[in-house]
Design goal:
Elements: H1 38-55, E1 65-67, E2 74-76, H2 77-93, E3 98-101, E4 105-107, E5 114-122, H3 124-128, E6 135-142, E7 145-153, E8 158-163, E9 168-170, E10 173-174, E11 187-190, H4 201-210, E12 214-217, H5 221-229, E13 235-241, H6 243-255, E14 259-262, E15 265-266, E16 273-278, H7 280-299
Helix pairs in contact: 1-2, 4-7, 5-6
């Protein structure tokens, strides 16, 4: 088995890893690139968002937490502060752009072709309990395609970024997915469906254990995807991912060399729902594992 955890700093491209032909291109970029004068402004805003996430959020010592739909669905003053700052920064530069955010919903021209998809704190339950595994996730979308993505872990200071066609970075250093050729010895991540296991999840974990892979459930979808991009984790399997949770992550992972599958097929446009984000060398094994789990679920 060849597997090199890179801690976000590996520079040997995984391009030499064999890639199954059906995964040759996981995204089909159909949209037109944004105007040349838009992207620099977008990236400046993302820099300001990152700075606020790292330095401007209310302290975990000053948390104010409330529940939303139920006692397990938590939101804090950190969610609201981050959300308000993103809206302020976007509309200060681009007043005609629309911000679609987890807590407040849609702000601005809902018919705009320029969209900002925001999860102000992905992993709110962790964050609300001062567990240092949550992040800020922001994606810029135009013409139905994700063109820039940002994930910030305010607890560790890690800033993941990508621009379509320009690669992915962690704290300004280029990152690439794992060169693992087998699931054996690898880490695979997934997430609960709200607070419950998704259908087939126990079988999925058993199937991976039989292949000597380790499963982790950490509580932040976007941050889990970023670990694939950094080459720390071989794959992430998601049963029903929300667009706001994954938009930035799927671009960052794809730009780092990951395969992105939606319902087992190469993803297009704005992927969400049932997703697999995987290093190329394990993508087919992960797809086959998930297919086997599905077959057992249908049988019973």
């Amino acid at each position: 088995m060849e597997h090199t955890p890179n801690n976000g700093q590996r520079h040997d491209a995984p391009a030499s890893a064999p890639v199954h032909e059906e995964f040759e291109r996981s995204f089909d970029v159909r949209g037109k690139a944004p105007e040349i004068d838009i992207l620099p402004g977008v990236l400046r805003i993302m820099e300001e968002i990152a700075a606020f996430a790292l330095q401007g959020l209310p302290s975990l010592d000053d948390l104010s937490v409330r529940s939303k739909r139920d006692a397990a669905d938590l939101v804090s003053n950190r969610d609201y502060a981050m959300e308000a700052k993103v809206i302020e920064l976007v509309h200060r530069t681009f007043p005609r752009h629309v911000v679609i955010s987890e807590e407040i919903g849609t702000v601005g021209n809902e018919h705009s072709e320029h969209q900002w998809l925001v999860d102000p704190i992905d992993g709110s339950c962790n964050d609300s309990h001062a567990i240092p595994w949550s992040c800020v996730s922001v994606a810029y979308v135009t013409s139905g395609e994700i063109w820039a993505g940002l994930i910030v872990n305010p607890h560790t200071g890690e800033v993941f970024q990508a621009v379509r066609g320009q690669g992915a970075t962690l704290n300004s250093r280029r990152i690439l997915v794992s060169n693992a050729q087998s699931l054996a010895g690898s880490v695979v991540m997934t997430e609960l469906l709200n607070q419950s296991p998704w259908q087939g999840m126990a079988g999925f974990m058993d199937a991976l254990a039989s292949q000597d892979a380790t499963v982790r459930i950490m509580g932040s979808t976007a941050l889990s995807i970023s670990q694939v991009a950094a080459g720390r984790v071989a794959a992430v399997a998601l049963a029903d991912a929300g667009l706001l949770d994954v938009a930035a992550g799927v671009l960052i992972a794809e730009e780092a060399g990951a395969v992105i599958l939606h319902d087992g097929k190469p993803a297009h446009g704005l992927p969400h729902g049932r997703l697999l984000i995987a290093a190329p060398g394990v993508a087919l094994a992960m797809k086959q594992t998930l297919s086997g789990v599905d077959a057992r679920v249908e049988k019973h």
